[in-house]
Amino acid sequence: MYDILPVLGSGLVISGALLLATAIAPVWKIFRQLPAGGLRYSWGFLILLILIFIAGYVVYAKFSSVQFSQPLDLVVPVIFFGGAIFVFVVCSLSLRTTRDIMQNYALKQENITDSLMEIFNRRYLDRRLKDETERAINYSHPLSIFLIDIDHFKRINDTYGHQVGDQVLKNIAQLLKRSIRESDVLARYGGEEFVVILPRTQVSTSYQLAERLRHIVADFELTLPEDVSRDPVTINVAVSVGVAGLTPDCKDSQCLIENADQALYRAKRNGRNQVVISKSNNIDTEKSGNQIGAAELQ
Ligand SMILES: Nc1nc2c(ncn2[C@@H]2O[C@H](COP(=O)(O)OP(=O)(O)OP(=O)(O)O)[C@@H](O)[C@H]2O)c(=O)[nH]1
């Protein structure tokens, strides 16, 4: 009756080794998706450990002095097999969980990203601006925003068509994104308008940053390839910027946007391609562009 025990013992150990080998596949998939760094090395180390275990299983099955002559001799093979099941389940679950988390993250990103410009969308902006305003008020930190509008954008659409207009919007958005600080938040406000949130930033500093952005955009020459426009075309655009910051009389996100919008309106009315600060911030906004020196803003 115990004749079957040697086959059963070896079978359990070898099956365990095979199960361990299949557990490498999910770990390998996780390993491949990770960027170089500590975490990737840790998953690589796990693969190495599994390989060592497999070698151990094979050596045990081949050279074990135990003859598997009575049922108790099967305890170790059963533990080997159980261990392999455990490793396989943990590795498979890790892969499924990682995929779920990545999918959720991608969905979340999609939900807060403007598909054309590849920057934050209006939904995210509204929430983030509200959060930043509340935080700034709670901790008595300064907070400012820019409302940026591309000048005469309609002409670009009318002259070159909407497809070129879209490419201009996308390129300007990416240019702005590259040009702001990491702590600042850029979002599409609507149409050809952008908002930049500048946490912990006084209006005087924001003004200088806005001027810098305005110059960067004005100096930028966008050459569109033939597959976008009928002929290769180089386009220059300018932007007008309204700047507003929190004040004792303006303590919420809606008021900030309204003040920045009024400042932007004045920038447009004054001739465009300039930065104007909200009147509520007590800086003479009628003086625009480079006319306001840094010293005056202290
Ligand atoms: N191609 C493209 N055009 C857009 C998009 N969103 C808004 N627009 C265009 O942006 C233009 C905005 O025009 P206006 O509001 O008159 O402003 P403007 O021509 O920039 O003039 P000012 O703002 O006064 O300097 C309109 O022609 C819209 O159709 C978009 O996603 N893609």
Automatic annotation (TrEMBL):
Keyword presence, Transmembrane helix: yes
Cofactor(s) recorded in Swiss-Prot or TrEMBL: Mg(2+)
InterPro entries hit by this protein: Diguanylate_Cyclase, GGDEF_dom, Nucleotide_cyclase, Rev_trsase/Diguanyl_cyclase
Enzyme class: transferase
Biological processes, Gene Ontology terms: cell adhesion involved in single-species biofilm formation; negative regulation of bacterial-type flagellum-dependent cell motility
UniProt xrefs under CDD domains: GGDEF
PROSITE patterns with a match to the protein in the record: GGDEF (PS50887)
Listed EC numbers: 2.7.7.65
Listed GO MF terms: diguanylate cyclase activity
Protein name listed in UniProt: diguanylate cyclase
Natural source organism: Shewanella atlantica
Lineage: Bacteria, Pseudomonadati, Pseudomonadota, Gammaproteobacteria, Alteromonadales
